[in-house]
């Protein structure tokens, strides 16, 4: 049983659940049965996770970058409860409801001006899948055949569904096992590392060459703006994003920006594309949109994309998730957006950036560290060799912090509501891990 006041579970019950989990529950990117038992969380509040034995950990991951307001926020809890008292779900085919309409109004207002059409999806991966489908169907509706490939860059990650896997890094990504069955897209080298680095003329020339060479077979360009997330946690200069926008215009290609990880302020700007002052033709949002409460995402596009698809073969975008526009998710998403805009979120993110930068000073000089980088509410320690994940997590937990490294990367994307002291704790954990490499 769980003691709700203490946030604890009896050792016997915790052991039973953990063993069942290990034997029967398949976790992401993990074998079955699991080689390492996951930590058992029984409660979460503010920026802290409570484990079965009562241990509290500062969540340095925002539950995979989504819980920007932390957990059990009164405004978000109340939004879910209000909606639950009305209806939890209704099909979106042939029906609509005020909650989804209200969320669409917020997204149209908040995103770059040309994006006026909103297609709701169940997850970020599906939002990207829909964006790719939009680009492909756009050309079919225009009566142009043979445009089945996308131009993208190495080092990217866009999700785990099949269309998404095909535009993730084909060599160093997580999906190389499926290479022989995925669409072969056009990949440029990864953008040179460094947000503040001057642009490389040779790299810009390579982007231009690839776009020109493959222009007749390209359906669009897709990238993560400024920050490449799970493909490597790499930051690149805004000039490269501007160059891609120019190439999209030059060759009449839709520019798809995957803002799933970068959107809603994570990089220090509301959208990653704001760093480069460019706007996409198609844009994917998710993760932080619901404040980490429920799964929901959206794909937005311009009038031209939507009108062209709707006037072409089929007369509609051929996609329709069962839980599209789910009222509970839409309600908490609207509340999360309102909550974000009601606070000085930019100051919160700037303070996280400053605290992480200060706390990681000197870590790049440690012998096992290849690079240290911070941008907005993102801090990254890149090791020279792949890290021992259980050992690294043990160090983090000894410092009262939850982190989830992968490959050579130990990183944090904390909730925006972290205090300076809480962020400093996260930085201390990262530094201690860097010392151990």
UniProtKB/TrEMBL annotation:
Q: Which residues bind substrate?
A: 64, 157, 287, 320, 404
The UniProt entry lists the main location of this chain as cytoplasm
GO cellular component terms, A-Z = cytoplasm
Q: Which reaction does it catalyse?
A: (8S)-8-amino-7-oxononanoate + S-adenosyl-L-methionine = S-adenosyl-4-methylsulfanyl-2-oxobutanoate + (7R,8S)-7,8-diammoniononanoate
Gene3D superfamilies given in the database record: Aspartate Aminotransferase, domain 1, Type I PLP-dependent aspartate aminotransferase-like (Major domain)
> Where are the residues marked Participates in the substrate recognition with KAPA and in a stacking interaction with the adenine ring of SAM as a site?
29
The EC number(s) this enzyme carries: 2.6.1.62
Alphabetical list of SUPFAM superfamilies matching this protein: PLP-dependent transferases
Ligand binding (pyridoxal 5'-phosphate)? 124-125, 258, 321-322
Q: Name its cellular compartments.
A: Cytoplasm
User: Any idea which UniProt keywords this protein has?
Assistant: Aminotransferase, Biotin biosynthesis, Cytoplasm, Pyridoxal phosphate, S-adenosyl-L-methionine, Transferase
- What Pfam families does the record point to? Aminotran_3
User: What pathway does the UniProt record associate with this protein?
Assistant: Cofactor biosynthesis; biotin biosynthesis; 7,8-diaminononanoate from 8-amino-7-oxononanoate (SAM route): step 1/1
Where does the record place the modification N6-(pyridoxal phosphate)lysine?
287
Molecular function (GO) terms for this protein are: adenosylmethionine-8-amino-7-oxononanoate transaminase activity; pyridoxal phosphate binding
Domain of life, per UniProt, equals Bacteria
Q: Which co-factors does it depend on?
A: pyridoxal 5'-phosphate
Keyword Metal-binding present in the record's keywords: the answer is no
- Record carries keyword Transport: no
Q: Which GO terms describe its biological process?
A: biotin biosynthetic process
Q: Which family does it belong to?
A: Belongs to the class-III pyridoxal-phosphate-dependent aminotransferase family. BioA subfamily.
Q: What does this protein do?
A: Catalyzes the transfer of the alpha-amino group from S-adenosyl-L-methionine (SAM) to 7-keto-8-aminopelargonic acid (KAPA) to form 7,8-diaminopelargonic acid (DAPA). It is the only aminotransferase known to utilize SAM as an amino donor.
Q: How does it assemble?
A: Homodimer.
Q: What is this protein called?
A: Adenosylmethionine-8-amino-7-oxononanoate aminotransferase
Q: Organism source for this protein? A: Actinomadura rayongensis
Q: Quote the gene name from the UniProt entry.
A: bioA
